[in-house]
Amino acid sequence: MKIAVAQIRSPNGEIKGGIENHIRFISSAAEQSVDYLLFPELSLTGYELKIASSLALQKNDNQLNVFSLLAKQHEMCISVGMPLNLNGFVHIAAVIFVPDGRDEIYAKMNLHGDENTYFTRGENTCVVTCAGQRIFNAICADTCEHTHYALCGEAGASVYAAGVLVSKAGYETDARIWDEQSKNQSMLLAIANYTGRTGGYDAAGRSAIWYNGQLLAEADESAEALVMASETNGKWSGYVQNL
């Protein structure tokens, strides 16, 4: 099994440009035979809270069809971050497109700060089985809540995959939690973060993957990149490819 996290620059509210950049990353991931590709929080639009409601997509939006097609073409699960309108409520969501044409939705359960003004919290967890691994989905502030990791354990997941926006100021604190939880849960923990500026924050970059308390691979602060980890005979190894 091979998992990759995409470290991207924000499209700053330009969904068309965001889709084009996602396609570029998906193509690069396909060349590396990636099974599961994870993008950051609100990756399709950037972390644009004040205009999120106007940018929010519907589950059946035709703009998303390309991801279903690419998931099938490359036999890859693709987790895309976006503001998503579900039954009239806007959520910070990850839509996971799977090769058989289905899509799974995870809506962020733990909102942070001003997010509470613009979004509705999700109520359900989301586990996707991919290449023999049970992948538990998370978004940013979820990763700082011990209760969320407990739910991951109860679900019998082997991978915890989170799209985030973490600033340079907050990265070290959060990274200590990620390292600790990957060890406590004896699992793979994958973090997809932005590089550059979005939503008024200077993103830290440094998207990374840990396994059982060991850092396998980490991007630098400034480059767009794929951070990848592969499992062979129960052993994980990681590497970074700048784009």
From TrEMBL:
<dbReference type="GO" id="GO:0033388">
    <property type="term" value="P:putrescine biosynthetic process from arginine"/>
</dbReference>
<dbReference type="Pfam" id="PF00795">
    <property type="entry name" value="CN_hydrolase"/>
</dbReference>
<dbReference type="InterPro" id="IPR050345">
    <property type="entry name" value="Aliph_Amidase/BUP"/>
</dbReference>
<dbReference type="GO" id="GO:0050126">
    <property type="term" value="F:N-carbamoylputrescine amidase activity"/>
</dbReference>
<dbReference type="InterPro" id="IPR003010">
    <property type="entry name" value="C-N_Hydrolase"/>
</dbReference>
<protein>
    <submittedName>
        <fullName>Predicted amidohydrolase</fullName>
    </submittedName>
</protein>
<dbReference type="InterPro" id="IPR036526">
    <property type="entry name" value="C-N_Hydrolase_sf"/>
</dbReference>
<keyword id="KW-0378">Hydrolase</keyword>
<feature type="domain" description="CN hydrolase">
    <location>
        <begin position="1"/>
        <end position="234"/>
    </location>
</feature>
